[in-house]
Amino acid sequence: MKRRTLLASAAALSLAAGSAFAQDKVKAGFIYVGPVGDGGWTYEHDQGRKAVEAELGDAVETVYQESVPEGADAERAITQMALSGADIIFTTSFGYMDPTMNVAAKFPDVKFEHATGFKRADNVSVYSARFYEGRAIQGHIAGKMTKTNKVGYIASFPIPEVIRGINSAYLHAKKVNPDVEFSIVWAYTWFDPAKEADAARALIDNGADVILQHTDSTAPQAAAQEAGNVITFGQASDMAEFGPVPRVSSIIDNWAPYYIDRVKAVMDGTWESTDTWDGISTGMVGIGEISSAVPADVKAEALALKDAIAAGEYHPFTGPINKQDGTPWLAEGETASDGDLLGMNFYIEGLTGDVPN
Amino acid sequence: MIHLEKRPQPSQVWTVITPVLAVILTMIVGGMMFAALGKPPLEAIRTIFWDPLFHPQFAGYSRPQLLVKAGPLILIAIGLSVGFRAGIWNIGAEGQYIMGAICGAGASLALYPSDSILLFPMMVIAGALGGWAWSMIPAILKTKFGTNEILVSLMLVYVAESILASVSSGLLRNPDGMGFPGSRNFQQWDAAANKELIANTGMHWGVVFALIAVIAAYVLFARHIRGFQIRLSGEAPRAARFAGVNPNRIVIFCLGTAGALAGLAGLFEVTGPAGQISIDFNSGYGFTAIIVAFLGRLHPVGILLAGLLMALTYIGGELAQLMLGVPGASIQLFQGMLLFFLLATDVFTNYRIRFGQGAA
């Protein structure tokens, strides 16, 4: 039975390859976890898709499918996209990892790019951004600006990327304000405006006057605006419409240069399986305009921090850092390895509560 | 003046016509919606209803996928219909589905990496028991304390979702997964995988069980005394009591059946198409199955057809997004219309329209 499946998929493949050669245009497909209008994560990926169209014009055709659930439906969505003759497919959420690997095995001539995962193959690249670099700057501003010394953090899922963000923000808030405390709410969703707003309100009711979010909607911004005297940071997208307060800055995902590069590589036939993890230095992570609500000296420090990270002079995780239980993680002057960061599943010393387990 | 007059008996003709009428009305109004979005309406309707079955490029893949998508919907909806016929409203199939998946998957993961041929049957039993046990909570609360099964079963969905989040990032997490949530992938573990039984047909054990459930439910209602008691409890509870039907037994039986079938659906989904226990592997099948049960008029054969139709709108909807670039939300609207028109036209089963001056 195994062999028959293999033969059948080979047949499907030759069919797909045939249709790909029939057209001169390179077809790039995108699988989104949220709606393109989420104003955050998916919105920025879609901006990247539009940039590919704008840059490469008639030489490229793009297709996308939005709000694809992570699970059995994802595998079908990706397969159908491959069958429709896509030459390169970007699957833009962590939960698409195994489905992407499965489909990629059936379509060896189609290139796949999986965002934020860790499994690769000859035709599967992975890419992600060092969002924790942006979190360091957020943490710095948050630590300086909080008056109640309480920072609320709306986290999505307990995966290393999110935990890394929490640790980085806390580390840099603590550095400038030893009294700061973080309250973390796990929303178990990437995009659910009602849930995110509830989480923000609960945190504000508990005295938080800074709200950080690792979820994709603008609902926490709106909740903070309503409450007043609370500051927030745009997530994934600039969310400038909520400035100058509550939104005082933002982390912007800028996928456009990467997407253009990769689609071009398919056109030129130079595409190779790679592992990309870029940050502020290449512009994959952008820091949104720091608004007038931030005092000039804090703004200057934040920008200096950004420049130091961009230049590679400063690593946000530089020792001495202990784990939450007090065991040493990084010695004085030591910086975290990418391997440690990619698998991070622990809080650093000073954070309260447990990583959901 | 137009007014509605109650029919003495629900109309047999309308019972059959309304689902068809609802589909046609959905096509017309849905087509208007697509036109308003600037997409060619006929092409959109064709992409949703025709292309998954007959498109030269996609049909070879999407036809089997219809079974994959319809299987769990039918299996759960059959279980729900048994209760709905008796007037027992189990809204929590989603929770029973999740718990079935967790119990079945958990039972096998405890034995990893066993390759016994008894492993999969054991998982199937554990899955059914998990769903059954979860449905026994509202059942026992209802029979002992008279609580409302709608509220209890629905709220238990949220409890089950929290348990799912907890086990997928804790107890059942893949030890080789670098700290990411989600269990081992069952597709890569032959003894525990729910594989396609015949290659490229989409036929897996879940679909087989769904078909068995359809036949069993048909026999139950057409031939078996328990089926008669269930219908009687739903249509005339007092008469049922006088006929010696124990209402508590009916509650336990109906909720238990629904829970066990939903649990089975969850187990087959997690070991097959979904592959792993993850925080959101449950794609809302337990809720969609409620629509399927009603679309199928709570009749086993109707549910079979309704499940396939619902699967068609899902897969066709995905194709329409891909081929025509229609927004994802418009597909959900389209599916919502289907239920809306079904309920709207349903009025004619129990009422008829009278023109002119009414007696009232």
From TrEMBL, chain A:
GO cellular component: plasma membrane
InterPro entries noted in UniProt: ABC-Purine-Binding (IPR052910), Peripla_BP_I (IPR028082), PnrA-like (IPR003760)
Organism: Thalassococcus halodurans
Database matches in PANTHER family: ABC TRANSPORTER SUBSTRATE-BINDING PROTEIN
Superkingdom, natural source: Bacteria
Annotated SUPFAM superfamilies: Periplasmic binding protein-like I (SSF53822)
Name recorded for this polypeptide: Nucleoside-binding protein
Origin organism lineage: Bacteria, Pseudomonadati, Pseudomonadota, Alphaproteobacteria, Rhodobacterales
Domain ABC transporter substrate-binding protein PnrA-like: 25-304
Residues making up the signal peptide according to the UniProt record: 1-22
Keyword Signal attached: yes
UniProt KW keywords: Signal
UniProtKB/TrEMBL annotation, chain B:
Source organism superkingdom: Bacteria
GO molecular function, a single term: transmembrane transporter activity
Keyword Phosphoprotein attributed: no
GO cellular component labels: plasma membrane
Keywords of this entry: Cell membrane, Membrane, Transmembrane, Transmembrane helix
CDD domains: TM_PBP1_transp_TpRbsC_like
Membrane topology of the entry: Multi-pass membrane protein
UniProt main location, coarse: membrane
TM segment ranges: 12-37, 66-84, 96-112, 118-141, 150-172, 203-221, 250-268, 288-315, 322-344
Transmembrane helix among keywords: yes
Compartments where located: Cell membrane
Protein name: Nucleoside ABC transporter membrane protein
The species this protein was found in: Thalassococcus halodurans
